[in-house]
Amino acid sequence: MSKKVFVGLSGGVDSSVTAALLKQQGYDVTGVYMKNWSQDLPGMVCPWKQDYQDAKRVAVHLGIPFKLYDFEKEYRQLVVDYMIREYRAGRTPNPDIMCNQEVKFKLFLETAIADGTDMIATGHYARIKDGKMFAGIDSTKDQSYFLYRVTEDALKKSLMPIGEYKKSEVRELARKFGLATADKKDSQGICFVGKVGIKDFLLHELGPQPHGVIIDQHGKKIGEHDGALFYTIGQRHGLQVGGGLPFYVTGKDMDKNIVYVTTDLQDDKLWHNELKLKEVYWINETPKTKSELQVRTRYRAQLVEIKEILFAKDGPPESKNDDVINILLDEDVRAVTPGQSAVIYDGERCLGGGIVY
RNA sequence: UGGGGCGUAGCCAAGCGGUAAGGCAACGGGUUUUGGUCCCGUGAUUCGCAGGUUCGAUCCCUGCCGCCCCAG
Questions:
Q1: Mean pLDDT score of chain A, rounded to an integer?
Q2: What is the ipTM for the molecules in this complex?
Q3: A168 burial via Cβ count (<10 Å: 0-12, 13-18, 19+)
């Protein structure tokens, strides 16, 4: 009897092709639409119904069973609340990483297993071999960055067939399979916030924030902001201040409600050759200190060579000793941002990573 | 109320007699399963105001208004 696999169908091309490929490979495939968010937001109608229908259409076309898992409550709690909490603390979270860690590869996996499947599958551009994770073949679409907090155990029960293909090939396959989603535009932005934009979403959730001052590299006040929590390190637009050169955010003081900026692209405050990470997670074994490793500080960014990893004894007060590390780099990296993730690679292999603090 | 300088789009800023550069911001679009970055596109019938000289003025002259600096 063939292996049972539940494929997360989002209504997009990638997951559609994932299901088609697995079926072609002889798996006993079931399509599952995860309903994580359905609420309309000011200026945007939530596309979940459309996505659900597209997912169902694909399932029907492929002749596979189709299910709906309603995770709205959990998603709100695990992903959205986390995101809001982080922004309030002045950090810049990555909700999609949290979504993969807590929802797709934990809640969905557990629910699906309990529902009788052997494995799950998703339309991620990454490769899994023996519980190890590797970058997708298409380096321009590689999504392993978003998956570094998925456990080895979960990976062993997961399939990501799309990781073996380039995006253009996936589109081609979709057409070949006759999938309705073949030419559907790629989704972007946080899945649920979508077109609205993070600032509008936070404004909607938290209401107007106290305004404060914007101070440049010379200590001079150059304008006012409408809430420090809306701004992130490295950010250029949205400050509403002009004149001469563009301003980039270099830091924030949440207590004083100050946003610091600079016009100097070489400003020391914009560049770092050391990363302090907390909540460090290794997918498999903990690597040796001085191996030849690389790190990525944002999605699709170039890998940067690591000079040394120091397993720190002290970290931020709330963290345990063994999940804090310092990474020394060979070159400077721009706009290292607290709350964001730094993901560690050994070439194509994704080893794990941590959260900048 | 002696001397000097300046007033060009929301901001910075070139032009100094020939029919308004550029940058920032903003807005629109593109890239992107986080935030951000990045790329492309869009602005003044008009140059503080009022007169004058000239074929023609943002550029020259006069007056007024506003601002800055030095000196009292």
A1: 91
A2: 0.86
A3: exposed
